[in-house]
Automatic annotation (TrEMBL):
Protein name: MFS-type transporter
Keyword Transmembrane appears in the UniProt entry: yes
Membrane topology note: Multi-pass membrane protein
Domain Major facilitator superfamily (MFS) profile: 237-456
Family statement: Belongs to the major facilitator superfamily. Monocarboxylate porter (TC 2.A.1.13) family.
Keyword Membrane applies: yes
Protein's organism: Penicillium ucsense
Length: 456
């Protein structure tokens, strides 16, 4: 892709049908696009940010036995349901957005999120909470987050990454704000009032953002016929990204939801637990743009691999011995900067390994593979909690991040091998599009090549 052509307003690309496509109109690269950036920031703040407050609410439910007949595992499933539902309904949201428009789709999501949180305030049985906080809220997140994120790329060219980074930081800012707000309201007015406060905050913020957000016409050639392609499962590079996503989601979900309850387990108050969760979200706010910037400088596969391994190391070396409030805050800040590396870097990684034309369909497929892990991650983490404390859970979370890092490092080697294979094929006149085989990769890779230097 010719980036100079993009910036000048005329882009020529070759699509998968081998036809030449030209886009004459360039995005304004600013102007009202910055208003849209702020709107998406607010939407993410009031979906993913509000969702992270479930960790504080979960800690309250577990310590006060709010629902007498509910087990720890039943509570744990609720947080996972909210994220898995947002990923599961992606194809439905995309179809609805094309049929009814972005604004109608966003308004449906606004209504679902408000109804879910307000309904959760009146839950008297655990299954009421599963339907409201789990399924309904998760669907609302999907109807808001997916369309909102599809709007921004069409407003920017040179500032596209910057605008996406600003919007994505809403998850961290929202997590900081609503973890603290939720913890304070629970302590002073109770959990039911906390749910109502969250409901009306999301209603006002998301409603205003939906009305202000504008879409631009998407170029015809950028529309893909398929939401996802099952043939991607035949590609080793896509399978490695899937493995990276699955393992890190097991660790990420368990970490963000378990941390407030872990704080309670070592004798800290609900307020201290909410501050700990807010500190983790502060790390997310700092880490996502920072990791993205470093990735552009030192490699879009190498950097996430190192950061994911660093998160596993922090879990094993700092979280396990963390028995005091200051040490736990240090762990929350350090782990927060890198635990969300997957969601901040997965699309650039996909662009590197499958190309821009296949990136969207591959990402949709990967989201579907994450439905099951996000649902069961926290139940697994809580089931590992024994009488001796969180040791088994902490080791489990750390190992998940190490496994994800290992998958990315193998992917890095595959990318180097693929590049070398294309150069050899081009030199020998075989064509650069001849895909390398897994057998030839296994013959090529060795210990020296695993640690080969290079910006990948």
């Amino acid at each position: 892709m010719d980036l100079d052509a993009v910036e000048s307003g005329s882009l020529t690309t070759r699509g998968p049908d081998n036809e030449i496509h030209t886009v004459d109109e360039s995005p304004p690269n600013g102007g009202y696009g910055w208003v849209c950036t702020f709107c998406v920031f607010v939407i993410i703040m009031h979906t993913w940010g509000v969702n992270s407050a479930w960790g504080v609410i979960l800690a309250h439910f577990l310590s006060h036995s709010t629902f007498q007949s509910a087990t720890r595992i039943e509570f744990a499933f609720i947080g996972g349901l909210s994220i898995s539902q947002a990923l599961l309904i992606g194809p439905l949201v995309t179809k609805m957005q094309k049929a009814l428009g972005t604004r109608v789709t966003l308004l449906v999501g606004t209504a679902l999120v408000f109804g879910a949180l307000y309904g959760a305030a009146y839950a008297t049985e655990i299954w009421h909470l599963s339907l409201s906080q789990g399924i309904c809220f998760g669907m609302g997140m999907g109807f808001l987050y997916i369309p909102a994120m599809s709007v921004l790329p069409h407003w920017f060219t040179t500032h596209r990454s910057l605008s996406m980074g600003i919007a994505g930081s809403g998850a961290g800012i929202g997590g900081i704000t609503y973890n603290l707000v939720t913890g304070h309201v629970i302590e002073t007015l109770g959990v039911r009032t906390a749910y109502k406060v969250l409901a009306f905050c999301t209603l006002g913020a998301n409603l205003v953002s939906c009305l202000l957000l504008r879409t631009r016409d998407e170029p015809r050639q950028s529309r893909q016929k398929r939401a996802f392609d099952l043939h991607d499962f035949r590609c080793p590079e896509v399978l490695l990204v899937v493995f990276w996503g699955v393992t890190t989601e097991f660790g990420y979900i368990a970490l963000i939801y378990s941390l407030p309850n872990y704080a309670s387990s070592i004798g800290l108050s609900t307020k201290q637990g909410s501050i700990t969760a807010a500190t983790l979200n502060l790390g997310l706010t700092i880490g996502r743009p920072l990791v993205g910037y470093v990735s552009d400088k030192f490699g879009r596969i190498t950097t996430p691999a190192i950061m994911t391994a660093f998160c596993g190391m922090v879990c094993l070396m700092i979280w396990i011995p963390a028995q005091s409030y200051p040490v736990l805050l240090l762990f929350a800040l350090l782990s927060g900067t890198v635990c969300g590396t997957f969601w901040g870097t997965v699309t650039p990684v996909l662009a590197e390994v499958v190309g821009l034309w296949r990136m969207s369909s591959s990402f949709s497929l990967i989201c579907l593979t994450l439905v099951a892990p996000t649902t069961v991650a926290e139940p697994i983490a809580l089931s590992l909690v024994r009488g001796s404390g969180y040791l088994h859970t902490q080791a489990y979370v750390g190992c998940m991040f190490f496994l994800g890092s290992f998958a990315l490092w193998i992917l890095r080697c595959w990318k180097i091998f693929d590049t070398e294979s294309k150069e050899i094929n081009e030199r020998d006149g075989l064509g650069i599009n001849t895909p390398p085989s897994l057998v030839s990769f296994l013959r090529w890779v060795n210990l020296q090549k695993l640690f080969r230097k290079g910006r990948v």
